[in-house]
Structure formats: structure tokens, C-alpha cells
Amino acid sequence: MKFLEKITHCADETETVGAEIAKYVLEENESFVALYGDLGAGKTAFTRGFASVIVPDADVCSPTYTIVNEYEGETSLFHFDMYRIEDEDALDSIGFYDYFGRGIIITEWSENIPFALPERYVRVTIEKLGDDERKITAEICGK
């Protein structure tokens, strides 16, 4: 069920949409956000905005080399980069499943882990429309 579709014209607007979706996630008690989008689409900018609501003091950066960045707060946020994840064994080796139930999980490059997505999650797709324009679509997937 799609609940949001917006066009943004800069990184700040993408962050604003991230914050808007974070409010929805908190209100609806969702715990998993799967991000989809090409390299440079704005997934980390989106996550900065998202984190500004969940853990306001978080200094968000891409978890490309660390695989996961943990932001502790009243509700914890776990930001994963799945770009280098190829299979279930790789997920097990980083302790991915141990994060479930501990806070909100947001994953970049979710297209690499279709086998690991929970039964219900928020899917956010960020499409590049031009140099700075993005189309952001958010929907609930699953039961």
C-alpha cells in the first residue's frame, strides 16, 4: 500500500521526506525500512532526515565500510549498507538478525537481501530524475 510519493529538488528536501517517513514509522510502530535506489540516489541523505526524528543527535554517515552504524536513543536506529552482502551466510556473519526487535532497522541496497526482508516492512524507493531531482515513493509491504 503506497502512502507517499514526492519529488525533491535537493538533498535538504530529501532529508525532509526522510523525517516525514520517520514520523509515520513511529506512529505506526513499524520497525524495518528497506531503501532502494541507485548509487548516488540519496539514500544516506534520506537516512539523515529519518534519523533526525528517531535519534536527533545522530551524526549519520554512510555505513559502506562498517556495514552497520548504530545510533542509540530512546528508540535505537540501526543503519545497514547491504551493497557487499551476497547471501544469507554474509548476513549471519555480521549478526544482522540479532538487531531485530532492538529498535528500527533501515537498510540501504535492500535489493541485495530479498531473502532477509521481514514479513512486513516499509519500502522506500528513491529514483534519480535529474542532477538534483528525486522521486521518493514509500509503501507498506507485507501483512
Task: Please explain how this structure is put together.
The relative contact order is 0.25. The protein is globular and about 40 Å long. The protein is built from three helices and seven strands; from the N terminus they run E-H-E-H-E-E-H-E-E-E. The protein has 143 residues and is of the alpha/beta class. The protein has one domain: 3-Layer(aba) Sandwich (Rossmann fold). Helix 1 packs across helix 2. Helix content is 25%, strand content 31%.
CATH fold type: Rossmann fold
Number-wise, the strands total: 7
Q: How much helical structure, as a percent, in the residues?
A: 25-40%
- Overall outline: globular
Fill in the keyword field for this structure.
143 residues; alpha/beta; Rossmann fold; seven-stranded mixed beta sheet; 3 helices
Topology diagram in text:
Layout: E1 2-8, H1 11-28, E2 32-36, H2 43-54, E3 68-71, E4 77-81, H3 88-93, E5 104-108, E6 120-128, E7 134-142
Parallel strand pairs: 2-5, 2-6, 4-5
Antiparallel strand pairs: 1-7, 3-4, 6-7
Gist of the model:
This protein is α/β, with parallel strands linked by helices. It has one domain (2-142): 3-Layer(aba) Sandwich (Rossmann fold).
